[in-house]
Automatic annotation (TrEMBL):
Keywords: Metal-binding. The keyword Metal-binding applies. Pfam families: DDE_Tnp_4 (PF13359). Its cofactor is a divalent metal cation. Residues 80-164 form the DDE Tnp4 domain. One of its GO terms (molecular function) is metal ion binding. It comes from Meloidogyne enterolobii. This is DDE Tnp4 domain-containing protein.
Length: 179
């Protein structure tokens, strides 16, 4: 199937929500072929959009100023939290996706700036997973544990749902540079 046909099949599926309508229009490709094409196009779009929309700023001056204006705390480079995104019940490992509200979801960790732009995200965990585990297993946590900071004394602001030891370390690191 050509890339153009794959894209058209995916667009038709997005517009109608029906794979059968796509098959009827396509006159040839099987349901499995159409399904694979939709997954390929969706993955490509998601990857492109993620890279365009979820990224740290090249300069944190506006970020720290924005957070200071909102809350009076200096040196914040982002706010972190988890959120539950409802999904349809998956056919495999269904119980892992049942969250604390007894609904099927993904537990998504996000870091955003004062302008509500997303700087970081982890979207691969089932809803039953605790925020602390999502953070502990994220690339962001790994980077922070390896000493990465966007600037000296940077603070990542989070609630008690996140793993406190790394956040406390960041605050401690900040205090060393302030005093």
């Amino acid at each position: 199937m050509s890339p153009q046909v794959k894209l058209l099949a995916a667009l038709r599926f997005y517009a109608t929500g029906s794979i059968y309508g796509v098959i009827g229009d396509a006159h040839g490709p099987s349901k499995d072929s159409i399904g694979r094409a939709i997954k390929q196009v969706t993955k490509a779009i998601n990857l492109y959009m993620f890279q365009q929309l979820v990224k740290y700023p090249s300069n944190f001056d506006n970020t720290t100023t924005g957070f200071f204006e909102k809350g009076g705390i200096p040196s914040i480079f982002g706010c972190i939290d988890g959120t539950l995104i409802k999904i349809l019940a998956p056919s495999k490992y269904e119980e892992q996706f049942v969250d604390r509200k007894n609904e099927h979801s993904l537990n998504v960790m996000l870091v955003c700036g004062p302008n509500l732009k997303f700087y970081d995200a982890s979207v691969r965990w089932p809803g039953a997973t605790h925020d602390a585990r999502v953070f502990k297993n994220s690339k962001l946590c790994e980077r922070l544990q390896n000493g990465w900071r966007p600037f000296t004394g940077a603070i990542l602001l989070g609630d008690s749902g996140n793993k406190l030891d790394i956040l406390i370390y960041i605050l401690y690191d900040f205090m060393l540079h302030v005093t």
